[in-house]
Design goal:
- The chain is built from two helices and four strands, in the order ββαβαβ.
- The chain is of the alpha/beta class and about 80 residues long.
- A four-stranded parallel sheet has the order 1-2-3-4, with helices on one face.
- The termini are far apart.
Length: about 80
């Protein structure tokens, strides 16, 4: 992301990886849930990337998304 100049677009986002509770006080629009082992509330976020491990390309896509809902899924569960 640094190499292609998109790193600044991810500033302000909080990544919640694995079975980590969602941090309090951060609006859903600024959270990205990562991983098949994520807690159910992280899997329900507007931006969620499943996979074990998730694909880096899918994670970057979720981080850079401007969509209201960007649910990125790998081809394998």
């Amino acid at each position: 992301m640094r190499a292609d100049g998109t790193l600044n677009r991810a500033r302000g986002l909080t990544v919640v990886a694995g079975p980590t509770p969602l941090p309090a006080g951060i609006p859903q629009e600024f959270l990205v849930g990562i991983g098949s082992c994520a807690l159910p509330e992280a899997k329900g976020l507007l931006r969620y990337v499943r996979g074990c491990p998730p694909n880096n390309v899918d994670i970057v896509r979720a981080l850079l998304s401007n969509e209201r809902e960007e649910r990125v899924s790998r081809s394998s569960p």
